């Protein structure tokens, strides 16, 4: 075979190999396209199934709400809120269908999903309509407790973990300042430690709760007496969180009348704003005016009363928290907002800590301005700062004046005698009632037992005031007069009444005579000096 033929065969073999490689590449490309198409088809099917599930759940909830509405279980105010919430959620679902195409699947939105946390199982019960822009799902734990779940997304459905992390940090801070009004909440993470959303316990709202949001638009009606002090307590938490999303709608009153602050996702958003560095009733970065601005403005104008001195207790609680423990509450939030940059994290932590360390000074400055505008200069010191001590003294002055109207409290011995007397009076009253129930009594006996019953009741009332240190000098004189048998004879009381008062006097006199004997019995016997005592030995030099 010639060289030309060998070269020809080699060229043919090379062309054959090139064709095979091209065929393999085409086949691989077709497989990739088919896989991508299958992936898109599956994703499309998942989105369609999810959309159908949301729609079916919405129809189911709406049907239940219509039934409750027809039965009168939902009033007009609640129905308006539900309709507004449904409209907001409809817009949210329409926008999020586009944004979810570019984000991983969030299992928290799937009805029926379950997860374990702190030894308890939480299960998604479906969509719930309670207001707000973003959609919420209702979860229940093994104990039957209900929880509200919000995904870690923005109002248009894009991923944002800081809202869930801030909710968790705010719950921990509330528990430190006021455990009774704190709302339990936590951020739920996925398998890859990705924040999925936040769960917050559902509060049973009081049926006839005062509408703070409506009151902000018409402050002619005064606030209920139990709310102003609680509003001041919530202001401490929101100021530390730099939270200005505090309109009246973000406060709930539970069945026991305790005010609860909710929706803290906007906290720390205005930490760098210069206008948010000092307290004021004018700064409001959101369209709706904050509840605190309304309350403090009315106080400065003299249109409502506030016990500003009670904030001192909450300030002391915050000051008692170590700085390291305080910053640990916000570590995850700071890390997420600063994207792990150590320089930015340090700067943000210093700003958060500054609000804690300067809390007392800021309140003194702001309350001093309010008191000055109100015209109460007695509550302000020379530097124009609010004096918590002066406000507390002014608050206690009426109480001290009220206490001065009464006699001094009983001693321990007098209290024991008064309790013994109370028992005797109750027994005498019961005995008189039994005697009056008899049918063989004469008219004089009936009159005598009636006077005993009436006098015993008067003495019981006066003796109760003695025990509680709420008896005036005139009432004490009346008590002594009723206890005196001589006064009973002068007032022409029945023989039964005179005998009754004499027995009370004998009992009280017997108690007084018994006291010296008991005291004498308790005295320590003096040492017997007749016994020979050891004589001191002279010292030998």
Please characterize this protein's 3D structure.
The protein has 541 residues and is α+β, with helices and mostly antiparallel strands. The protein contains 17 helices and eight strands. The strands form two sheets. A six-stranded antiparallel sheet has the order 1-2-3-4-6-5. A two-stranded antiparallel ribbon has the order 7-8. The longest helix has 68 residues, at 3-70. It is elongated and about 160 Å long.
How does the SSE layout of this entry go?
Elements: H1 3-70, H2 76-99, E1 114-117, E2 120-128, E3 136-140, E4 146-151, H3 162-177, E5 185-189, E6 195-201, H4 212-217, H5 228-240, E7 251-253, E8 259-261, H6 291-300, H7 311-319, H8 323-328, H9 331-338, H10 342-357, H11 359-374, H12 388-403, H13 412-436, H14 443-467, H15 473-483, H16 485-490, H17 495-522
Antiparallel strand pairs: 1-2, 2-3, 3-4, 4-6, 5-6, 7-8
Q: Which strand order spans the largest sheet, edge to edge or round the barrel?
A: 1-2-3-4-6-5
Radius of gyration: 40 Å
Helix content: 55-70%
Poorly predicted runs are 513-541
The total strand number stands at: 8
Shape: elongated
Classify the beta-strand content into a percent band: 5-15%
End-to-end separation: 145 Å
Q: Structural class of the helix and strand makeup?
A: alpha+beta
Order of helices and strands: HHEEEEHEEHHEEHHHHHHHHHHHH
What's the tally of helices? Answer: 17
Mean pLDDT: 82
How is the main sheet built? 6 strands, antiparallel
